[in-house]
Amino acid sequence: MTATPKTPAPLRLHGVDHTARPTWRLRETVSFYRDILGLPLVHVISARGWGPATHPDFLHFFFDSGQGSTIAFFYYLGSDEPEALRGRSRMRPLPEDHVFDATHTAWLVESEDELKAWKQKLQDAGLEVSVETRHEVIESIYVRDPNGYFIEFTRKLRPLGEVDAIDAALTLQAAMQAEADAESAGGRMQHIDDVWARKAALLEERLALADGGAEPPVRIFVPRVEEFSSLVQDASGRENCTVVPGEHFDCIVSDGPVEFQRKALGLKPAVWYGLFTGGVSGTIDVLDRDRVRISAARP
């Protein structure tokens, strides 16, 4: 009898082992990560340069970053710091260079009190620390290490759940479709409104929602998560809005223009500017720091 071959188990990754960046400030980097942050130095590789002939001799040193992972740095002997890095350690802890600062490390703390204690510890060490920023599911502070790298300290505001995963998949599906449309027209995707509109169309199709009139209504899809709940509550008390509850998304429907105020919703700017991540069917006429106005989609 021929044995049935075993189906191989699907491959899975088991977490992050380490991240690594270059440094040209050996003493300062060790002082920051070991002495200020308190991360144990657990391993160092010292080696002749190998591979390309231009590869310098180097140190590769690792700090324990918890949960079996490490954060590592390469120190290339005799090499010059790139011009792009010079002076970055003196920059404020703000994402003024969004491309460079997008690459960063976020350290997890367990509570609001811990976050405040870390802010005080960093300030006591002479570092400039950002104000607390409340994102959708985390609250964070930021600082720069001696190399100018962006460092984040963050606490979780709530666990991620099924709604988040469904919302994430729809968002990226909408983004890829919008990007493909832009590329086929010889351009590039420029505005997040295009993603929000495409996502609303995906949800309208999924939920079999019809326009029901010559002029389609404004529809705002809101993921059923805590950080966006004030938008649904506000709309529920308006005569010109109807809230249609759903399993994963509530849908705010209005036949005419609808306007919301950030302060009335009690939202921080970081959440406010992503308020329509669930999708919008309509035209966003105004979206500034404090006010948004949405009207029916223009033909």
From TrEMBL:
Q: Which UniProt keywords apply?
A: Aromatic hydrocarbons catabolism, Dioxygenase, Iron, Metal-binding, Oxidoreductase
Sequence intervals crossing the membrane:
none
Q: Which cofactor does it need?
A: Fe(2+)
Q: Which SUPFAM superfamilies match?
A: Glyoxalase/Bleomycin resistance protein/Dihydroxybiphenyl dioxygenase
Q: Where is the VOC domain?
A: 15-156
Q: Which GO terms describe its molecular function?
A: dioxygenase activity; ferrous iron binding
**Family the entry assigns:** Belongs to the extradiol ring-cleavage dioxygenase family.
What is the protein name given in its UniProt record? VOC family protein
Q: Native species of this protein?
A: Achromobacter pestifer
